[in-house]
Amino acid sequence: MKFKSTFVFLLLFSLFLSGANAQTARPGKVLRHVVMFKFSESATPANIQKIEEAFAKLPQRIGGIQSFEWGTNSSPEGLNQGLTHCFILTFTSDKDRDAYLVHPAHKEFGKSLGTDVEKVTVLDFWVK
User: Fold this and answer.
1) DSSP string spanning 85-121?
2) Nearest CA to 73 among 85, 87, 59?
3) Residue 69's beta-bridge partner residues?
4) Is 33 helix (H, G, I), strand (E, B) or coil?
5) Residue 25: pLDDT band with limits 50, 70, 90
6) Residue, of 28 and 49, whose pLDDT is higher
7) 58 assigned to some structural domain
8) Using CA atoms, how far apart are residues 118 and 85, in angstroms rounded to an integer?
9) What is the dihedral of CA 35, 41, 46, 52, to 10 degrees?
10) Contact (Cβ atoms closer than 8 angstroms) between residue 32 and residue 124
């Protein structure tokens, strides 16, 4: 009888924990964190390259980032409003994304942008 009570307790407890995770994780779906930069006219190619390299190192320094991609604008439409660089980070939960946002390495990276980045645009979305 004691074994049965323990089993029922553990089963209910595990169901409770899985319900708590459901608030931030969506099985089979991913959260994209899209960051776009418009560099200032005074930003040198060397400084831009340093920023690209520093951003690309964040996944090695911060857990929870499932993938990292980046590139520069190649659209012929002319609707980029000066945004030239796009960085896409993939997460599997709001919790992982939120941990990334407050991580010291992310904060340090943001401070390193200085006056080289004139505009930052960020958009997060769950892939459908």
Assistant:
1) EEEEEEESBHHHHHHHHH-HHHHHHHHHTTTTEEEEE
2) 85
3) 88
4) strand
5) low
6) 49
7) yes
8) 12
9) 0
10) yes
- pLDDT score of 42 more than 50: yes
pLDDT of res. 116? 98
Answer whether residue 108 is part of any domain: yes
Each residue of 53-83: pLDDT tens digit?
A: 999 999 999 999 999 999 999 999 999 999 9
The answer to whether residue 20 sits within a structural domain is: no
89: domain CATH number?
Answer: 3.30.70.100
CA–CA dist 18, 92 (Å, integer): 15
Q: Tally the domains of the chain.
A: 1
Residue keyed to tokens 């319900």: 19
Q: Range of 38's domain?
A: 25-126
Please indicate whether residue 27 or residue 65 has the higher confidence score (pLDDT). Answer: 65
- Distance (Å, whole) CA 29 – CA 91: 9
